[in-house]
Amino acid sequence: MGKPLHFNAFVMNTTSHIQHGQWRRPDAGQTEFNDVNTWINLAKILEKAKFDAMFFADVSGLYGDTEADYDVYAHEGLQIPSNDPTVLLGALAVHTTQIGLATTSNIVQNHPFNFARQVSTLDHISNGRIAWNVVTGINENASRNYGLPALTDHTERYAWADEYIDVTYKLWEGSWDEGALLKDKKNGRYADPSKINKIYHQSKRYRVEGPHLPSPSKQRTPVLFQAGSSASGRDFAARNAEATFIIAPTPDVAKELIAETRRLAVSHGRRAEDIKFFQGLSFVIGDTEEEAREKSKHYDEFISVDGYLAHMAILDRTGRVYPKETKLKDLDTNTSKGMAEWAGKHITDREPTLEDVATLQSHSTRLEGTPEQIADQLETWQAAGVDGINVINWVIPGSFQEFADKVLPVLRARGLAQSEYSEGTLRQKLFGDGDLLNERHPAARYRGAFTQGPSNWEEADALRAKAPATV
Ligand SMILES: Cc1cc2nc3c(=O)[nH]c(=O)nc-3n(C[C@H](O)[C@H](O)[C@H](O)COP(=O)(O)O)c2cc1C
Protein backbone atom coordinates (compact mmCIF):
# COMPACT_ATOMS: atom_id res chain seq x y z
CA MET A 1 0.00 0.00 0.00
CA GLY A 2 1.19 3.51 -0.87
CA LYS A 3 1.37 6.61 1.25
CA PRO A 4 -1.67 8.91 0.95
CA LEU A 5 -1.27 12.02 -1.15
CA HIS A 6 -2.89 15.22 0.08
CA PHE A 7 -5.60 16.84 -2.04
CA ASN A 8 -6.56 20.51 -2.12
CA ALA A 9 -9.33 21.99 -4.23
CA PHE A 10 -7.75 24.91 -6.08
CA VAL A 11 -10.36 27.65 -6.53
CA MET A 12 -10.76 31.40 -6.73
CA ASN A 13 -13.61 33.66 -5.64
CA THR A 14 -14.31 34.67 -9.24
CA THR A 15 -15.70 33.28 -12.51
CA SER A 16 -12.63 32.57 -14.65
CA HIS A 17 -9.61 31.49 -12.63
CA ILE A 18 -7.33 29.28 -14.77
CA GLN A 19 -9.31 27.31 -17.32
CA HIS A 20 -10.55 30.28 -19.28
CA GLY A 21 -13.76 29.96 -21.26
CA GLN A 22 -15.11 26.95 -19.33
CA TRP A 23 -17.54 29.18 -17.42
CA ARG A 24 -19.64 29.19 -20.60
CA ARG A 25 -20.43 25.49 -20.21
CA PRO A 26 -24.03 24.82 -19.15
CA ASP A 27 -22.87 22.89 -16.06
CA ALA A 28 -20.46 25.62 -14.85
CA GLY A 29 -21.51 26.91 -11.42
CA GLN A 30 -18.60 29.36 -11.09
CA THR A 31 -20.67 32.14 -12.68
CA GLU A 32 -22.59 32.19 -9.36
CA PHE A 33 -19.52 32.88 -7.23
CA ASN A 34 -21.25 35.89 -5.59
CA ASP A 35 -23.71 33.45 -4.02
CA VAL A 36 -22.20 32.14 -0.80
CA ASN A 37 -24.20 28.91 -1.23
CA THR A 38 -22.05 28.04 -4.27
CA TRP A 39 -19.07 27.83 -1.92
CA ILE A 40 -20.85 26.27 1.04
CA ASN A 41 -22.20 23.55 -1.25
CA LEU A 42 -18.71 22.92 -2.68
CA ALA A 43 -17.11 22.89 0.78
CA LYS A 44 -19.58 20.19 1.87
CA ILE A 45 -18.85 18.06 -1.22
CA LEU A 46 -15.11 18.37 -0.59
CA GLU A 47 -15.39 17.58 3.09
CA LYS A 48 -17.48 14.50 2.37
CA ALA A 49 -14.76 13.39 -0.09
CA LYS A 50 -12.06 14.02 2.59
CA PHE A 51 -10.15 16.66 0.66
CA ASP A 52 -7.44 18.13 2.89
CA ALA A 53 -8.16 21.76 2.09
CA MET A 54 -9.94 24.28 -0.05
CA PHE A 55 -7.26 26.58 -1.43
CA PHE A 56 -8.28 30.03 -2.64
CA ALA A 57 -6.01 31.97 -5.01
CA ASP A 58 -6.40 35.74 -5.11
CA VAL A 59 -5.07 38.89 -6.77
CA SER A 60 -5.40 42.48 -5.62
CA GLY A 61 -5.62 44.12 -9.01
CA LEU A 62 -5.94 43.65 -12.75
CA TYR A 63 -3.48 41.80 -14.96
CA GLY A 64 -1.75 43.46 -17.89
CA ASP A 65 -0.51 46.93 -18.71
CA THR A 66 -1.98 49.51 -16.31
CA GLU A 67 -2.36 52.14 -19.02
CA ALA A 68 -4.25 49.85 -21.36
CA ASP A 69 -7.96 49.08 -21.31
CA TYR A 70 -9.25 45.97 -19.59
CA ASP A 71 -12.06 44.97 -21.94
CA VAL A 72 -10.76 41.45 -22.43
CA TYR A 73 -10.62 40.74 -18.67
CA ALA A 74 -14.19 41.97 -18.20
CA HIS A 75 -15.46 40.00 -21.23
CA GLU A 76 -13.78 36.84 -19.99
CA GLY A 77 -14.75 37.29 -16.31
CA LEU A 78 -11.01 36.78 -15.85
CA GLN A 79 -10.46 37.42 -12.13
CA ILE A 80 -12.73 40.46 -12.34
CA PRO A 81 -15.26 40.62 -10.80
CA SER A 82 -13.75 38.86 -7.82
CA ASN A 83 -14.44 38.76 -4.08
CA ASP A 84 -12.16 38.58 -1.08
CA PRO A 85 -11.47 34.93 -0.14
CA THR A 86 -10.38 35.75 3.41
CA VAL A 87 -13.83 37.11 4.23
CA LEU A 88 -15.47 34.07 2.60
CA LEU A 89 -13.52 31.67 4.82
CA GLY A 90 -15.51 32.93 7.83
CA ALA A 91 -18.69 31.60 6.24
CA LEU A 92 -17.12 28.31 5.16
CA ALA A 93 -15.66 27.73 8.61
CA VAL A 94 -19.09 27.54 10.21
CA HIS A 95 -20.47 25.18 7.57
CA THR A 96 -17.63 22.65 7.87
CA THR A 97 -15.75 20.97 10.70
CA GLN A 98 -12.72 19.20 9.22
CA ILE A 99 -11.51 20.60 5.92
CA GLY A 100 -8.59 23.07 5.86
CA LEU A 101 -9.31 26.57 4.57
CA ALA A 102 -6.47 28.33 2.77
CA THR A 103 -6.51 31.95 1.67
CA THR A 104 -4.07 33.93 -0.47
CA SER A 105 -3.15 37.36 0.81
CA ASN A 106 -0.64 39.70 -0.78
CA ILE A 107 1.71 41.68 1.46
CA VAL A 108 0.65 44.94 -0.23
CA GLN A 109 -3.03 44.55 0.51
CA ASN A 110 -3.22 44.69 4.29
CA HIS A 111 -1.26 46.00 7.23
CA PRO A 112 0.36 43.02 9.02
CA PHE A 113 -1.18 43.99 12.37
CA ASN A 114 -4.66 43.90 10.89
CA PHE A 115 -4.01 40.80 8.79
CA ALA A 116 -2.62 38.88 11.78
CA ARG A 117 -5.79 39.77 13.71
CA GLN A 118 -8.07 38.62 10.87
CA VAL A 119 -6.25 35.30 10.58
CA SER A 120 -6.34 34.66 14.33
CA THR A 121 -10.07 35.38 14.28
CA LEU A 122 -10.57 32.91 11.42
CA ASP A 123 -8.42 30.30 13.15
CA HIS A 124 -10.65 30.67 16.25
CA ILE A 125 -13.83 30.41 14.17
CA SER A 126 -12.58 27.33 12.31
CA ASN A 127 -11.03 25.67 15.35
CA GLY A 128 -7.54 25.69 13.83
CA ARG A 129 -8.08 25.04 10.11
CA ILE A 130 -6.65 28.16 8.45
CA ALA A 131 -3.71 28.38 6.02
CA TRP A 132 -2.16 31.47 4.42
CA ASN A 133 -0.63 31.50 0.95
CA VAL A 134 1.94 34.28 1.20
CA VAL A 135 2.29 36.14 -2.11
CA THR A 136 4.21 39.22 -3.17
CA GLY A 137 2.19 39.82 -6.35
CA ILE A 138 3.10 40.50 -9.94
CA ASN A 139 0.40 42.98 -10.95
CA GLU A 140 1.28 46.61 -11.40
CA ASN A 141 -2.35 47.63 -10.95
CA ALA A 142 -2.41 45.99 -7.49
CA SER A 143 0.50 48.18 -6.42
CA ARG A 144 -1.30 51.26 -7.67
CA ASN A 145 -4.39 50.29 -5.70
CA TYR A 146 -2.35 50.64 -2.54
CA GLY A 147 -0.70 53.96 -3.30
CA LEU A 148 2.55 52.71 -4.81
CA PRO A 149 3.77 54.31 -8.04
CA ALA A 150 4.64 50.96 -9.63
CA LEU A 151 5.25 47.30 -8.94
CA THR A 152 8.02 47.06 -6.35
CA ASP A 153 11.28 45.60 -7.63
CA HIS A 154 11.45 41.79 -7.41
CA THR A 155 14.22 41.49 -4.78
CA GLU A 156 12.70 44.28 -2.72
CA ARG A 157 9.29 42.54 -2.79
CA TYR A 158 10.81 39.54 -1.02
CA ALA A 159 12.66 41.78 1.48
CA TRP A 160 9.26 43.34 2.17
CA ALA A 161 7.72 39.88 2.58
CA ASP A 162 10.41 39.02 5.17
CA GLU A 163 9.58 42.16 7.08
CA TYR A 164 5.83 41.59 6.86
CA ILE A 165 5.91 37.99 7.95
CA ASP A 166 8.24 38.85 10.82
CA VAL A 167 5.62 41.21 12.27
CA THR A 168 2.96 38.51 12.03
CA TYR A 169 5.25 35.89 13.66
CA LYS A 170 5.89 38.19 16.61
CA LEU A 171 2.17 38.78 17.07
CA TRP A 172 1.12 35.16 16.65
CA GLU A 173 3.94 33.43 18.49
CA GLY A 174 5.41 35.95 20.94
CA SER A 175 2.79 38.41 22.04
CA TRP A 176 0.79 36.04 24.21
CA ASP A 177 2.53 33.57 26.49
CA GLU A 178 0.92 30.21 27.21
CA GLY A 179 -1.63 30.38 30.02
CA ALA A 180 -2.44 34.07 29.60
CA LEU A 181 -6.14 33.41 29.25
CA LEU A 182 -7.60 32.80 32.74
CA LYS A 183 -11.40 33.14 32.34
CA ASP A 184 -11.48 33.30 36.13
CA LYS A 185 -15.02 34.41 36.93
CA LYS A 186 -14.60 34.08 40.70
CA ASN A 187 -11.74 36.53 40.96
CA GLY A 188 -12.74 38.70 38.03
CA ARG A 189 -9.55 38.03 36.07
CA TYR A 190 -10.22 37.31 32.43
CA ALA A 191 -6.60 37.44 31.26
CA ASP A 192 -3.20 37.75 32.94
CA PRO A 193 -1.48 40.97 31.81
CA SER A 194 1.95 39.68 32.85
CA LYS A 195 1.64 37.11 30.04
CA ILE A 196 0.47 39.53 27.35
CA ASN A 197 3.39 41.31 25.71
CA LYS A 198 3.91 44.28 23.45
CA ILE A 199 6.30 43.50 20.60
CA TYR A 200 7.81 46.94 19.81
CA HIS A 201 8.60 45.94 16.24
CA GLN A 202 10.55 48.45 14.15
CA SER A 203 11.70 47.85 10.58
CA LYS A 204 11.92 49.72 7.29
CA ARG A 205 8.17 49.81 6.65
CA TYR A 206 6.53 48.86 9.92
CA ARG A 207 6.46 50.18 13.47
CA VAL A 208 4.09 47.98 15.49
CA GLU A 209 3.72 48.19 19.24
CA GLY A 210 1.29 45.36 20.00
CA PRO A 211 0.07 43.46 21.85
CA HIS A 212 -1.78 41.20 19.45
CA LEU A 213 -5.46 41.73 20.20
CA PRO A 214 -6.76 38.15 19.83
CA SER A 215 -5.66 35.55 22.33
CA PRO A 216 -3.80 32.63 20.72
CA SER A 217 -5.82 30.44 18.38
CA LYS A 218 -5.26 26.69 18.13
CA GLN A 219 -2.50 26.94 15.52
CA ARG A 220 -1.29 30.43 16.49
CA THR A 221 0.46 30.86 13.11
CA PRO A 222 -1.70 29.54 10.23
CA VAL A 223 -0.26 26.79 8.03
CA LEU A 224 2.06 28.67 5.66
CA PHE A 225 1.82 28.14 1.89
CA GLN A 226 4.02 29.86 -0.67
CA ALA A 227 4.06 29.87 -4.46
CA GLY A 228 7.12 31.78 -5.70
CA SER A 229 9.43 29.91 -8.03
CA SER A 230 12.32 32.37 -8.62
CA ALA A 231 15.57 32.07 -6.64
CA SER A 232 14.34 34.61 -4.05
CA GLY A 233 10.91 32.96 -4.02
CA ARG A 234 12.41 29.53 -3.36
CA ASP A 235 14.67 30.91 -0.64
CA PHE A 236 11.69 32.57 1.04
CA ALA A 237 9.80 29.26 0.83
CA ALA A 238 12.78 27.31 2.17
CA ARG A 239 12.87 29.54 5.25
CA ASN A 240 9.16 30.06 5.88
CA ALA A 241 6.83 27.72 4.00
CA GLU A 242 5.29 24.53 5.32
CA ALA A 243 3.79 23.85 1.91
CA THR A 244 4.78 25.04 -1.53
CA PHE A 245 2.55 25.20 -4.54
CA ILE A 246 4.19 24.35 -7.85
CA ILE A 247 2.99 23.98 -11.42
CA ALA A 248 5.79 21.92 -12.94
CA PRO A 249 5.36 20.79 -16.57
CA THR A 250 6.64 17.25 -15.85
CA PRO A 251 7.45 15.05 -12.84
CA ASP A 252 11.16 15.34 -13.71
CA VAL A 253 11.05 19.13 -13.49
CA ALA A 254 9.11 18.88 -10.22
CA LYS A 255 11.72 16.49 -8.85
CA GLU A 256 14.53 18.96 -9.45
CA LEU A 257 12.60 21.91 -8.04
CA ILE A 258 11.60 19.97 -4.94
CA ALA A 259 15.10 18.65 -4.28
CA GLU A 260 16.53 22.15 -4.61
CA THR A 261 14.03 23.74 -2.19
CA ARG A 262 14.45 20.89 0.30
CA ARG A 263 18.24 21.34 0.17
CA LEU A 264 17.79 25.04 0.84
CA ALA A 265 15.44 24.33 3.77
CA VAL A 266 18.09 22.09 5.34
CA SER A 267 20.69 24.82 4.88
CA HIS A 268 18.40 27.08 6.94
CA GLY A 269 18.28 24.60 9.83
CA ARG A 270 15.00 22.98 8.87
CA ARG A 271 14.38 19.40 7.77
CA ALA A 272 13.68 18.30 4.22
CA GLU A 273 10.27 16.96 5.29
CA ASP A 274 9.28 20.27 6.93
CA ILE A 275 7.95 21.43 3.54
CA LYS A 276 5.23 19.67 1.58
CA PHE A 277 4.97 20.15 -2.18
CA PHE A 278 1.61 20.47 -3.95
CA GLN A 279 1.50 20.16 -7.73
CA GLY A 280 -1.37 21.83 -9.61
CA LEU A 281 -3.14 19.43 -12.02
CA SER A 282 -6.46 19.22 -13.83
CA PHE A 283 -8.19 15.98 -14.73
CA VAL A 284 -10.18 14.59 -17.63
CA ILE A 285 -11.73 11.35 -16.41
CA GLY A 286 -13.38 8.72 -18.62
CA ASP A 287 -14.75 5.25 -17.95
CA THR A 288 -12.72 4.25 -21.02
CA GLU A 289 -9.69 5.82 -22.67
CA GLU A 290 -11.88 6.69 -25.64
CA GLU A 291 -14.39 8.51 -23.45
CA ALA A 292 -11.59 10.51 -21.80
CA ARG A 293 -10.28 11.53 -25.24
CA GLU A 294 -13.75 12.68 -26.32
CA LYS A 295 -14.22 14.65 -23.11
CA SER A 296 -10.86 16.28 -23.55
CA LYS A 297 -11.88 17.47 -27.02
CA HIS A 298 -15.09 18.80 -25.53
CA TYR A 299 -13.13 20.89 -22.99
CA ASP A 300 -10.96 22.17 -25.85
CA GLU A 301 -14.08 23.46 -27.60
CA PHE A 302 -14.74 25.80 -24.70
CA ILE A 303 -11.17 27.10 -24.41
CA SER A 304 -11.04 30.86 -24.72
CA VAL A 305 -7.81 31.69 -26.54
CA ASP A 306 -8.26 35.36 -25.58
CA GLY A 307 -8.59 34.35 -21.93
CA TYR A 308 -5.36 32.34 -21.80
CA LEU A 309 -3.41 35.00 -23.68
CA ALA A 310 -4.73 37.76 -21.41
CA HIS A 311 -3.87 35.76 -18.29
CA MET A 312 -0.36 35.26 -19.65
CA ALA A 313 -0.29 39.01 -20.41
CA ILE A 314 0.39 38.45 -24.12
CA LEU A 315 -1.28 41.64 -25.26
CA ASP A 316 -0.47 44.48 -27.58
CA ARG A 317 0.33 47.95 -26.25
CA THR A 318 -3.33 48.98 -26.16
CA GLY A 319 -4.20 45.99 -23.97
CA ARG A 320 -5.87 44.04 -26.75
CA VAL A 321 -5.25 40.40 -27.51
CA TYR A 322 -3.56 39.73 -30.83
CA PRO A 323 -5.52 37.79 -33.44
CA LYS A 324 -5.23 34.12 -32.52
CA GLU A 325 -3.68 33.16 -35.85
CA THR A 326 -0.71 35.49 -35.16
CA LYS A 327 2.51 33.53 -35.62
CA LEU A 328 4.87 33.65 -32.66
CA LYS A 329 7.74 34.69 -34.87
CA ASP A 330 5.76 37.86 -35.72
CA LEU A 331 5.35 38.96 -32.10
CA ASP A 332 7.83 41.60 -31.14
CA THR A 333 7.94 41.18 -27.38
CA ASN A 334 10.46 39.69 -24.98
CA THR A 335 7.94 37.23 -23.62
CA SER A 336 7.46 35.64 -27.00
CA LYS A 337 11.00 34.25 -27.18
CA GLY A 338 10.67 31.71 -24.35
CA MET A 339 7.20 30.87 -25.54
CA ALA A 340 8.31 30.38 -29.11
CA GLU A 341 10.95 27.90 -27.95
CA TRP A 342 8.41 26.10 -25.77
CA ALA A 343 5.79 25.94 -28.52
CA GLY A 344 8.42 24.96 -31.10
CA LYS A 345 9.21 21.83 -29.10
CA HIS A 346 5.60 20.65 -29.36
CA ILE A 347 4.68 21.92 -32.82
CA THR A 348 7.17 20.93 -35.45
CA ASP A 349 5.09 20.71 -38.63
CA ARG A 350 4.22 24.44 -38.89
CA GLU A 351 4.89 27.86 -37.41
CA PRO A 352 3.28 27.95 -33.92
CA THR A 353 0.54 30.53 -33.44
CA LEU A 354 -0.93 32.21 -30.38
CA GLU A 355 -3.83 29.77 -30.52
CA ASP A 356 -1.30 26.95 -30.15
CA VAL A 357 0.14 28.69 -27.08
CA ALA A 358 -3.29 28.90 -25.43
CA THR A 359 -4.08 25.26 -26.22
CA LEU A 360 -0.67 24.10 -24.96
CA GLN A 361 -1.11 26.09 -21.78
CA SER A 362 -4.48 24.48 -21.14
CA HIS A 363 -3.02 21.01 -21.75
CA SER A 364 0.15 21.56 -19.72
CA THR A 365 -1.32 20.40 -16.42
CA ARG A 366 -3.95 18.03 -17.77
CA LEU A 367 -4.05 14.36 -16.74
CA GLU A 368 -6.32 12.35 -18.96
CA GLY A 369 -7.57 8.77 -18.87
CA THR A 370 -9.49 6.20 -16.86
CA PRO A 371 -9.37 6.44 -13.06
CA GLU A 372 -6.77 3.65 -13.06
CA GLN A 373 -4.58 5.44 -15.59
CA ILE A 374 -4.87 8.69 -13.63
CA ALA A 375 -3.89 6.85 -10.45
CA ASP A 376 -0.82 5.47 -12.28
CA GLN A 377 0.18 8.99 -13.33
CA LEU A 378 -0.30 10.32 -9.80
CA GLU A 379 2.02 7.60 -8.55
CA THR A 380 4.67 8.97 -10.94
CA TRP A 381 4.22 12.47 -9.53
CA GLN A 382 4.46 11.10 -6.02
CA ALA A 383 7.66 9.24 -6.90
CA ALA A 384 9.10 12.61 -8.00
CA GLY A 385 8.64 13.90 -4.44
CA VAL A 386 5.22 15.52 -4.68
CA ASP A 387 3.24 15.26 -1.40
CA GLY A 388 -0.07 16.56 -2.63
CA ILE A 389 -2.14 17.80 -5.54
CA ASN A 390 -3.94 21.10 -5.97
CA VAL A 391 -6.87 19.95 -8.10
CA ILE A 392 -7.59 22.56 -10.79
CA ASN A 393 -11.24 22.59 -11.87
CA TRP A 394 -13.04 23.01 -15.17
CA VAL A 395 -16.40 23.59 -13.57
CA ILE A 396 -17.62 24.07 -10.02
CA PRO A 397 -18.73 21.83 -8.39
CA GLY A 398 -18.80 19.14 -11.14
CA SER A 399 -15.03 18.65 -11.57
CA PHE A 400 -14.56 18.00 -7.86
CA GLN A 401 -17.62 15.77 -7.57
CA GLU A 402 -16.35 13.69 -10.51
CA PHE A 403 -12.87 13.43 -9.00
CA ALA A 404 -14.43 12.36 -5.68
CA ASP A 405 -16.71 9.76 -7.28
CA LYS A 406 -14.32 8.25 -9.80
CA VAL A 407 -10.66 8.80 -8.94
CA LEU A 408 -10.55 8.92 -5.13
CA PRO A 409 -11.98 5.38 -4.66
CA VAL A 410 -9.25 3.96 -6.92
CA LEU A 411 -6.60 5.95 -5.06
CA ARG A 412 -7.98 4.76 -1.71
CA ALA A 413 -7.79 1.15 -2.82
CA ARG A 414 -4.07 1.72 -3.46
CA GLY A 415 -3.57 3.58 -0.16
CA LEU A 416 -2.96 6.84 -2.05
CA ALA A 417 -5.80 8.91 -0.56
CA GLN A 418 -7.12 9.23 2.97
CA SER A 419 -10.45 7.61 3.87
CA GLU A 420 -10.99 9.56 7.09
CA TYR A 421 -9.72 12.80 8.54
CA SER A 422 -7.30 12.49 11.40
CA GLU A 423 -8.01 14.47 14.55
CA GLY A 424 -6.90 18.01 15.23
CA THR A 425 -5.92 21.20 13.48
CA LEU A 426 -4.96 21.48 9.82
CA ARG A 427 -1.27 21.46 10.79
CA GLN A 428 -1.74 18.34 12.92
CA LYS A 429 -3.65 16.65 10.11
CA LEU A 430 -0.91 17.45 7.55
CA PHE A 431 2.19 16.78 9.64
CA GLY A 432 0.98 14.74 12.64
CA ASP A 433 3.35 16.67 14.87
CA GLY A 434 1.18 19.01 16.94
CA ASP A 435 -0.91 22.12 16.37
CA LEU A 436 1.94 24.62 16.42
CA LEU A 437 4.85 25.38 14.11
CA ASN A 438 7.76 23.10 14.96
CA GLU A 439 10.81 24.32 16.89
CA ARG A 440 12.94 24.50 13.74
CA HIS A 441 10.76 27.16 12.14
CA PRO A 442 12.10 30.74 12.37
CA ALA A 443 8.89 31.96 14.03
CA ALA A 444 9.52 29.66 17.01
CA ARG A 445 12.29 31.98 18.23
CA TYR A 446 9.67 34.52 19.28
CA ARG A 447 8.03 32.20 21.81
CA GLY A 448 8.66 33.80 25.19
CA ALA A 449 10.95 36.38 23.55
CA PHE A 450 8.89 39.34 24.76
CA THR A 451 8.06 38.11 28.29
CA GLN A 452 11.04 39.94 29.76
CA GLY A 453 11.04 42.38 26.87
CA PRO A 454 11.34 46.13 26.77
CA SER A 455 8.64 48.19 28.48
CA ASN A 456 8.72 51.15 26.11
CA TRP A 457 10.02 52.22 22.69
CA GLU A 458 13.22 53.79 24.11
CA GLU A 459 14.24 50.51 25.72
CA ALA A 460 13.24 48.59 22.60
CA ASP A 461 15.28 50.86 20.32
CA ALA A 462 18.32 50.63 22.62
CA LEU A 463 18.07 46.84 22.70
CA ARG A 464 17.76 46.71 18.92
CA ALA A 465 20.86 48.85 18.50
CA LYS A 466 22.82 46.42 20.70
CA ALA A 467 21.51 43.13 19.29
CA PRO A 468 19.59 43.68 16.05
CA ALA A 469 18.93 39.97 15.43
CA THR A 470 16.98 39.32 18.63
CA VAL A 471 14.01 41.69 18.37
C1 LIG B 1 1.38 27.94 -8.83
C2 LIG B 1 1.38 29.39 -8.52
C3 LIG B 1 0.25 29.98 -7.95
C4 LIG B 1 0.22 31.34 -7.65
N1 LIG B 1 -0.89 31.91 -7.10
C5 LIG B 1 -0.91 33.24 -6.87
C6 LIG B 1 -2.04 33.90 -6.36
O1 LIG B 1 -3.08 33.31 -6.09
N2 LIG B 1 -1.98 35.25 -6.18
C7 LIG B 1 -0.86 35.98 -6.45
O2 LIG B 1 -0.86 37.19 -6.26
N3 LIG B 1 0.23 35.37 -6.94
C8 LIG B 1 0.23 34.05 -7.13
N4 LIG B 1 1.35 33.46 -7.64
C9 LIG B 1 2.51 34.31 -7.88
C10 LIG B 1 3.61 34.06 -6.87
O3 LIG B 1 3.18 34.16 -5.56
C11 LIG B 1 4.74 35.03 -7.08
O4 LIG B 1 4.38 36.33 -6.72
C12 LIG B 1 5.19 35.02 -8.50
O5 LIG B 1 5.36 33.70 -8.92
C13 LIG B 1 6.46 35.82 -8.64
O6 LIG B 1 7.40 35.37 -7.76
P1 LIG B 1 8.61 34.51 -8.24
O7 LIG B 1 9.34 35.42 -9.16
O8 LIG B 1 9.35 34.18 -6.99
O9 LIG B 1 8.09 33.30 -8.93
C14 LIG B 1 1.37 32.10 -7.92
C15 LIG B 1 2.51 31.50 -8.49
C16 LIG B 1 2.53 30.17 -8.78
C17 LIG B 1 3.78 29.57 -9.36
Automatic annotation (TrEMBL):
SUPFAM superfamilies: Bacterial luciferase-like
EC class name: oxidoreductase
Keywords, ordered alphabetically: Flavoprotein, FMN, Monooxygenase, Oxidoreductase
Oxidoreductase keyword on record: yes
UniProt-listed Enzyme Commission number(s): 1.14.-.-
Domain of life of the source: Bacteria
Pfam families tied to this protein: Bac_luciferase
InterPro entries per UniProt: Diverse_substr_monoxygenases (IPR051260), Luciferase-like_dom (IPR011251), Luciferase-like_sf (IPR036661), NTA_MOA (IPR016215)
This protein's record includes keyword Secreted: no
Luciferase-like domain residues: 21-387
MF terms in GO: monooxygenase activity
Gene3D superfamilies on file: Luciferase-like domain (3.20.20.30)
Family of this protein: Belongs to the NtaA/SnaA/DszA monooxygenase family.
Name this polypeptide is given: NtaA/DmoA family FMN-dependent monooxygenase
